[in-house]
Design a protein that fits this description.
Strand content: 35-45%
Order of helices and strands: HEEEHEEEEEEEEE
Helix content: 10-25%
Shape: globular
Number of strands: 12
Oligomer: single chain
Structural class: mainly beta
Number of helices: 2
Amino acid sequence: MRRLFLAVSTGLLAILLLAPPAGAEEVQGNDPPGDVPVARGDLTFFGAIHGPARVDLRVRTLMGGNPENVWPNRATRIRWRLDTVFAAPGPEYYADIVIATGVDTVMFGKVRRVSDNHLMCSAQNHVPGDNTVAQASNVYRFRFLRGCIGAPLRFRARATFIWDGGRPNVGPVFTDFAPNGGPTAPIGTPA
């Protein structure tokens, strides 16, 4: 009986932790596997959640791996294009997952305003805070405060995995978009 209770409790907890927060709006979809020749840079799923306090962006790739160990260089990145002003050509913000090399190689999340490249907010893997960036297996997630993109009522999103297999800016660069046809429909803020 204890094992059954434990199994059911664990299953419910997993569902609750994966579900978007109450009042959040989510857009998600699949991207065809094999549309780029590098499995680690091949997006297969995207999800964007516009919650009451945070934006939560996720992608899944065909093959995973900790970016700190398997991404070939700092030019390789996951870039979310976030459009917040629909009447103007977008995007207004980039939300990037990148690696940086210093004493150690670490994964960062950075939100930048496109018009002037101003850093709006950032997060570092394994460092708790209001903004977080994380990777588990083949899922990459960047979660940040809505104010990082001006706290819009709605936004549209498009994920891009830019895989630079050579030295930065030399050699083949493979790009995969999700969704393929352009940005998502507008994702509204909770009423």
